[in-house]
Amino acid sequence: MKIKEKNIQIAMVIITVMMTILRFLLNEKGRVNPDSIRFMRFAHVFPTIDNTTTPLGYPVAVKLFTFLGFDEFWGSKALGIAALLYIVCFCWIKNFYRRGAIMLSALFSFVSLYAYTMSEALFLPFVFLFLYTASQIITGKLGGRKAVFYLSVSLITLYNIRYSALFFMAGTGLYGLLSLRKKYGPVFILSGVIGLVFIAAYKFLFIDYFNQDYVKTFLEVGLHPTSQLLREFFQGLTTSFNPFIHIADPGGGQINFAIYGIGVLNILLLIYLLVKERLTETELFFVVAGSTGILCSYFIQYFYSVNPMDYRIIGPFLVPLWLIYFHRLFKIFGIKTYVISILSILTGMTFTWLSKGNYLENRKAVSGFLKSEKLDKVPLKFYVTKKEEDLNKMKTAELVSTVNADVTFTYKPKDTLQKTTLTWYKVLQKIKIDKNKYQ
Hints:
The chain is mainly alpha-helical. The chain contains 19 helices and three strands.
């Protein structure tokens, strides 16, 4: 590797880490959402099982970071940065899509994932391990029982972080069927089946034990019309494949045509690059695994209540496609390909700065309020209505949870009479929050 390129890579990694830190510090609530509240509370009360809506993997990982002196919020951020560095170091040592891993991590959408208090931050390193294990099997460097064991373990590990790993299992089994006549075909089929058996056991032995109504609560046929899902599928796919801006303007406007347009052009270029040159067996697996994950993420919405498809939902399934994409571009443009990620970093810096809030200032205000009310170390409830339309009220709860992780939502008005129940009005009566301008 030329010294010039090595310097570019080192600089990009350093800047990416800095951008990840700025991404949550220059946010009014530190890059958390309602799901983050559940994750941090789960980590706080573990080994008590708080809920089965999420697997144990991410909350337990956050809990481990608290033993290093972090609270749940800062532990989640340290985990995100550690995940980023692990991916880069792993791909560097193993010489596994080294360039692609550095470029992918520098994309603004992935910077946002590393900075988020969400399970995708932990999920991504294990996606790379899964892809690496599969490539070792396909190239003949890993075979027999060891191949089945390592591939199965990687799939099961992914499932213990995010339930959507089920889609990687489906992609693994499908690739095995497509490669049935090849030596490694049965390995992929068997590993996929072992993964499905684990899911069945997990459901009956863990989920049903703590929540027998889980399936009844979350499975409902006909949740959304196809017209809505197709529109959201287009928007989610094009914004996720836009290397510069991964979130459309919710208010609409002409700017969205440009955002979607860049994504469409990028998808068309990816398809052209895939068709232009014959796929290797490893690349074929990447395409099958990634495409299966994206399609399953779409169809699951018909009967499972999830957020509309976006960069966070399908980001992990785009990883294998991005790796092929960058690999092909490097064959054509060489080190000039780094310009894509460099421009993405610059765009991210601009967006982050223009929309900045001040998390540290807000945290200081909330921390002072909770300590003065002696609520910083006790279980809290936060009152919201079931048809909450004012997102600012939810944002206040999210901000509070970054200081005291033991926060639970309540929908009962009578709970507001309790001192340990907070409301949007009670908090903002005592403190002022610095808000993001465009988020």
